[in-house]
Amino acid sequence: MNLFRNIQDLRQYLKQERLKAALEGKVLETGFVPTMGYLHEGHASLLREARRNNDLVVLSIFVNPIQFGPNEDFERYPRDEAKDLQLAEQEGVDAVFLPSVGEMYPAQTLTKITVSQQLTGGLCGASRPGHFDGVTTVVSKLFNIVEPERAYFGQKDAQQVAVITQMVKDLNMPVQIVPCPIRREEDGLALSSRNVYLAPAEREAALVLSRQLLHVQELINEGGTLTAGEAKETLLHAFTAEPLAEVDYVEVVRFPGLQPLGDSERIAQDGEVLVAVAVKFGSTRLIDNVILSKKGV
Ligand code: AMP
């Protein structure tokens, strides 16, 4: 497994690998998995999907400062490079890109990528202003550095998938965005690097998210006629009954357009509907979601 901290070195390596393949009359296809590290089974599932469908797998680990707000957890975001490299090795990653902040953002950086508020203004964008500009800017930079054929993103960050898919389409970026399902602990908690912040009682309380989302999903799959308003009410009721939970948002929107459903609109009448929640447990903000469709999930 090859490790790179400089953009130039990674580019050189990729160029050589592509040239080697070309000399053998082959096209080397690259699958890319961008992450912020502190890797878990959710990240591993993306790496496995990339491994299955590409000749070369590139993983990036970069805690991107510009996607964190001033009062967020950039400084204390968990990091464990040695453990991450072990997991990457196990998953058969070919190259890991571990740039410093200075490497990604030299002193004079005057450009950013912004996707319209129509996609970035609601859900997580409402409580984290500027967050998606940080995400789209760093992902664009990484795409330009790695030039992958495919890039893998978790549906756990459903809005991120919608925003990046739109960006790639609008800017004609030659990369296919591959969304991958949410990976969960056995008890249902969506895997997240931030779960490590949770005190035992908060972790127990946090199970309300997956339990209630599953409940809503079951109501729909059983052919129920749940409206968006009823779904939100069910979730809000359960979350507010949990003393350790502080609701940030509970939303029902179309996917991937992210237009909110009216309260009286039935879910799963046509197309896909995203039921997304963000809830704080102590100082830890967790997100979770389900995507529902007429055909079931
Ligand atoms: P992060 O390191 O949190 O920025 O996440 C890197 C990538 O892993 C993103 O595409 C996330 O959506 C994805 N990811 C994070 N948690 C999960 C999970 N539980 N299941 C599937 N993908 C995930």
Question: How would you characterize this protein structure?
Answer:
The protein is an alpha/beta fold. The chain is built from 11 helices and 9 strands. The chain folds into 2 domains: 179 residues, HUPs (Rossmann fold); 97 residues, Pantoate-beta-alanine ligase, C-terminal domain (Pantoate--beta-alanine Ligase, Chain: A,domain 2, 2-Layer Sandwich), CATH 3.30.1300.10. A 6-stranded parallel sheet has the order 1-4-3-2-5-6, sandwiched between helices. β8 and β9 form a beta hairpin. α7 crosses α8. It is globular and about 60 Å long. 37% of the residues are buried. The chain binds adenosine monophosphate. The site of adenosine monophosphate has 17 residues, from α2 and β5.
